[in-house]
Design a protein that fits this description.
This protein is α+β, with helices and mostly antiparallel strands. The chain is built from 4 helices and 7 strands, in the order αβββαβαββαβ. One of its GO terms (biological process) is L-methylmalonyl-CoA metabolic process.
Length: about 110
């Protein structure tokens, strides 16, 4: 996090733990975008297993949607593989759902604020 705060001069607006996902997230606003730095809170968590297997780096890309249920239904109808067929709780009181990485070759997250 020091790179973002000390070197780039960005400010952390919030740090939140999402127990269900076994992660702690630091939220860093950058213009109209947001950087979300994740830290696993458990060696059994999905993020910890990802880092153990692939190392540190970009985990996923998040895309803001206005209606997550509608977006999931549209993607499902178009044959896009989903990890989450229903939204779940994310940081900052958001609702999120993940798309399977086999479709876009990267893990994508839909976020409804």
């Amino acid at each position: 996090m020091k790179l973002y705060t000390n070197v780039l001069g960005l400010e952390v607006s919030q740090i939140e733990t999402v127990a269900e996902q076994k992660v702690k997230a630091a939220i860093i606003p950058v213009g109209e975008s947001t950087i979300e730095l994740l830290e696993s809170t458990s060696p059994e968590g999905t993020l910890a297993k990802f880092i153990e297997k692939r190392g540190e780096g970009i985990h996923h890309l998040a895309l803001r949607v206005s209606n997550i249920e509608q977006a999931l239904e549209t993607l499902k109808e178009k044959g896009i593989p989903l990890i989450d067929e229903k939204p779940r709780k994310g940081v900052e009181n958001t609702r999120i759902a993940f798309l399977h990485p086999q479709g876009a070759k990267i893990l994508l997250e839909l976020v409804e604020y």
